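Researcher: Please translate sequence to structure tokens.
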Amino acid sequence: MSMFKAMDLSAAGLTAQRQRLDVIAENLANINTTRTAEGGPYKRKSVIMEATPAEDFDSFLGSPEKVEVVQIAQDNQEPITEYDPSHPDADKNGMVLFPNINPVSEMVHLMLASRAYEANVAVLRTGKSMAQKALEIGR
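Model: Translation complete:
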């Protein structure tokens, strides 16, 4: 695999992990959102990634495939109900629907996405360093 191919794969990974980080941050920011434009509480979102085959001949020889975000899906879990008659979104029984988002789970996903992002940055830096060293050979 060429150095530029490795850098291209890392760039695709960076883009996918950045989208994943954005969605996780959105979930955490809306953990107490009880009213959305669609009606009802905020629904947790998750990123669905897929490995897409490369367009060149190397893909048939076992080269890694690029990762891409194919969908940002909404979770269909039931919302959490809490009794709070003073809340503006409470129903006639005083029950409020809150998003079913576990902050601990979201933080774990955030850490995993962050580590994957950092790993892709390290690959890009290594590729850049290798290219610079290769150019220095000709001096």
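Researcher: Any highlights?
Model: The helical segments are 3-29, 103-137.
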